[in-house]
Structures are given as structure tokens and as C-alpha cells.
Amino acid sequence: MTDLGAVLRLLYRGPRGAARCVANPYRDGVAGLDGPAAARRRRRNLEAYCQGVVGRPCLILVGEALGYRGGRFSGIAFTSERQLAGGGPKRLAWAAGGGFRATSSNAALWSEPSGTIVWRALGDDPRGVLLWNAFPWHPWGGRGPLSNRTPERSLLFANLHVLERLLAETGGAEVLAVGKTAQVALAACGLAAPALRHPAHGGAAIFRSQLERHLRR
After folding, report:
1. What does the alpha-carbon distance between residue 180 and residue 11 come to, in Å, rounded to a whole number?
2. Domains of the chain (ranges plus CATH)?
3. Average pLDDT of the chain?
4. In the prediction, which pLDDT does 2 show?
5. Which range among 1-10, 23-32, 99-108, 166-175 shows the weakest confidence by mean pLDDT?
6. CB contact at 8 A, 42 and 73
7. Helix, strand, coil percentages in the chain from 3-state DSSP, rounded to 5
8. Is residue 1 scored above 60 in pLDDT?
9. H helices present in 14-93, as ranges
10. How many CB atoms are closer than 10 A to CB 59?
11. How far apart, in whole angstroms, are the C-alpha atoms of residue 205 and residue 24?
12. What's phi and psi for 109, nearest 5 deg?
């Protein structure tokens, strides 16, 4: 099992510089959106995922940033709180009995289409696969905290320290970029990673096909 403690400490501190309209869900909560002790629950979700579920990563999928339907409330990239703590078929089998908790005030729990696509492409099997983001916090857009935006290049490049530390701690793992923003960030860290089509906005079939080819190897 890889020790990601140093990476998580950097993550929890939040972004550097003037990070406007950015939520650090591992430290802060928003009244009306977050439930009790939400930030602590998200830290525990992420730690349980990294330490007890993934093990030693042999493959890392790096996306763009946390989305409000996914990691903003679950604490885990490409994963919704409904997948962690909901009932019914959307709950991931590995999350049952793992102490994972919902953190939002949304009684229905948030569900993210991209998260569903990614986990189905992985066969719902987390062993050896770490999901992460180039900008590992939630940048929100003009519609407020329940919206998403692509982080500006200046913001992205000013906060590559977490990604750089992650790559240093997981040396030897294959790294794939999910989307062009992640590929640009990895290149800035000195890693020429192949890019998969992002599953959002009609890219699901291409993403699945590309990832399956890598998994077969």
C-alpha cells in the first residue's frame, strides 16, 4: 500500500494564491449545502478509499477538477456520494460496510454521470486504480457553488504541487489523463501521459473503448 499521507496534507490545505470561486471541500463547508461535519467526513472518505480500497496504485486516472455532483461532496474524484452511501444499484459494492458517508444536505444525494461511466468502465473494481484530479478542488462557475468550471491555466499551474507530490509518491504507476486539461497539467509536471476522451458531453463510448484497451494490457 502506498503512503499518501504527505499528498493528502497538501490537498487539505487547499490551493495556493488567489483561488477565487474555489471550494476546498476537505476543509470548508457551505451553509445550506453541506451537512454536519462535512469536511471531516470527506477527508475520511478519501483516506478510506486511498488506504483501504486502492492499495498500491498501478494505474492512475487524472481528471480535470472536482465536480459539484461528484467529488465536491464525496471527497473522491469521479465518484458521487450516491455511489458511496446511497441505496440501490448505484451504490458501489466496495463502498458497502466501508464507513463511507454522504456529506451534503441533499436528501436525494448527488449523482454524477461521469462517475457512473468511469466506475462501470473499471468494472466497479477499485483495486490498484487511483482516481485523482489535476486541480483537486472544486472550481465553481457563474451559477454559483452548484456549478462547475474549467480552472484557468494560471490557477492550474500555480497548484501543481499536489499532483507533483502524488506522482513522486506513486512512481512506477501508469498515468492516464482524462481530458486535455489533465494532459496539459501532467505535461507541466514533466510527464507525457496519453489522454483519454473525457466521458462527459457525449464522450462515454470513446472513453470506455480507450480505457478498455489500456486495461487489457
Report:
1. 22
2. 5-216 (3.40.470.10)
3. 94
4. 62
5. 1-10
6. yes
7. 40, 15, 50
8. no
9. 38-48, 71-74, 81-85
10. 19
11. 31
12. 70, 145
Query: What's the CA angle centered on 158, arms 154 and 159, to 5 degrees?
Result: 125
φ/ψ of 119, rounded to 5, equals -70, -35
Measured distance CA(193)–CA(185) in Å, rounded: 10
176-199 pLDDT, tens digit each: 999 999 999 999 999 999 999 999
User: For 119-136, what is the mean pLDDT?
Assistant: 94
Among 212, 137, 217, CA closest to 174 = 217
Please give the backbone phi and psi of residue 127, each rounded to the nearest 5 degrees, phi first: -60, 120
What is the rounded distance in angstroms from the CA atom of residue 60 to the CA atom of residue 122? 12
Taking the C-alpha atoms of residue 211 and residue 213, their distance in angstroms, rounded to an integer, is 5
Report the distance separating Cα 148 and Cα 4, nearest Å: 27
- pLDDT the model gives residue 46: 96
Q: What residues contact residue 57 under an 8 Å CB cut-off, 6+ apart?
A: 2, 128, 129, 130, 170, 173
Is-contact 193 61, C-beta < 8 A? no
Q: DSSP string covering 99-136, please?
A: T----BS-TT----HHHHHHHHHTTT--TTEEEEEEE-
The CA radius of gyration of the chain, in Å to the nearest whole number, is 16
Predicted local distance difference test score (pLDDT) of residue 18? 80
**Residue 37 grid coordinates:** 461535519
CA dihedral 138, 144, 148, 151 (to 10 degrees): -60
